[in-house]
Amino acid sequence: MTRLLLGLTLLLSVAISAHCLHNVVTGGKSPITAQDAEGGSFQNAITEVTRAYNTYSNSMFHHAMLRYEDAKKQVVAGIRYTFVAVFVETPCRKAVRHYGSPLRWCKEKLSPDAKVYRCPVSVVYRPWSSPRQYEVDRSGLESCQQTRRLKRSEPLQHQVLLGGDSHDIGHYGQFAEFKRAHGKVYASRAEEQRRFAIFRDNMKKAYAYQMLDRGDARYGASVFADLTQEEFRSRYLSPRWDLSRRPAEEAAVPTLGDLPTSFDWREKGAVTEVKNQGTCGSCWAFSTTGNIEGQWFINKKKLVDLSEQQLVDCDKVDEGCNGGLPSQAYKEIERMGGLMKESDYPYRGSDQKCQFNQGKVAVYINSSVAISKDEKAMAAWLVQNGPISIGINANAMQFYLSGISHPWKIFCNPSHLDHGVLIVGYGMKGTEPYWIIKNSWGTSWGNKGYYLVYRGDGTCGLNQMCTSAQVK
């Protein structure tokens, strides 16, 4: 169990678009779609079943898969594929070494009366498990039945075995495009090769997120695709947030009433441009200033770009680039008497000596409140009061590209918050409700710096630490 849990945490957040678990009964089986059939993991499952059949069969000849029938998938601890494999016996002997797939070896040599077998098979795909990502249930292969002879006109569906190997994920051409898109330059050839190896591994993780996500999000070669999980977490995230450190005062639950279908504070002028925290774990400061910028605009009718560096340097409770909490930052802002403008105290992205100037305070706050964890109440509060500072589990964010992200809880623990962001609005895409979240990793990340997350089930803990300053 420990190994499984550790393995699951390796799934991080492609260029492959898939609705693998979308609109599927949780835990139930669903048919393989055309998109699934083109996807690498299902093709690899077919390859693994063929390899297993040839390994455990007593026949002296290799067998190749003609086709699969009645294919279904099911989310378990990974993805279980079940189908009926239809094999044909080839004239290629196992004792003779061949290169390539059995169908490529022997498709021109098949006898028109070759034996055909039907086998009920089950294979579980666990992308985090190395080196055995595919586990084939041998019991089905041991119960194969010869059903008939091959028909002379019967086509060979060998195309399902081509291009399905993991070598196609994270290839060097994709890495070259990633470097070009994000201006990546490495100090040496050896460092570039090391980053390419990390990139390949990350693309497999991103592909796993793509397969398992319940929304329509795309995961792939984001700006962080050449970083290890440890590098990403240490540079861009905070230590796990203490969920007990919420403001003592609870915000009044607003009247829910009839909320608009969509709402966006960016359209009202209450949100500054997307910023970039760099390699400093100061997300908490950006979440805090974003909230106060909105509060000041709504109450004072003026949008002011505020200084995160002041919080990094002068907040005596939080830990600058090593992390912090908006709930604590509000109190420190009250102690200091307010926040300076970004232009007067510019962001450096590292811990500096405090240079706070009381004479240049641009905004103040009066208090802070904790906001309801109920997402309908959150939406009502946002519409009536402004953007909300939140914490979130950033597991799925390293490789996020676009679309509505909706990871399963087992891959994005809602109690493990490690990143501060800002909810600025919400919307609907078809029947899918989502939050609009402003991040602090620059506009080259995600959807021009924004993250769309499923709204309604506490995805990645986004409703666990909702707070706001109050300006009167």
From TrEMBL:
Pfam families of this UniProt entry?
Answer: Inhibitor_I29, Peptidase_C1
| Taxonomy, superkingdom | Eukaryota
Q: Name one GO molecular function term.
A: cysteine-type endopeptidase inhibitor activity
Question: Know the name of this protein?
Answer: Cathepsin F
- Entry keyword annotation includes Transmembrane helix: no
Q: Which UniProt keywords apply?
A: Disulfide bond, Glycoprotein, Hydrolase, Protease, Signal, Thiol protease, Zymogen
- Could you tell me which species this protein originates from? Macrostomum lignano
The cross-references to InterPro entries, in alphabetical order and at most eight, read: Cystatin_dom, Cystatin_sf, Papain-like_cys_pep_sf, Pept_asp_AS, Pept_cys_AS, Pept_his_AS, Peptidase_C1A, Peptidase_C1A_C
Q: Which residues form the Cathepsin propeptide inhibitor domain?
A: 175-232
GO biological process, alphabetically ordered: proteolysis
Protein family according to the UniProt entry: Belongs to the peptidase C1 family.
Q: Which residues form the signal peptide?
A: 1-20
Where the record annotates domain Peptidase C1A papain C-terminal, the positions are: 259-470
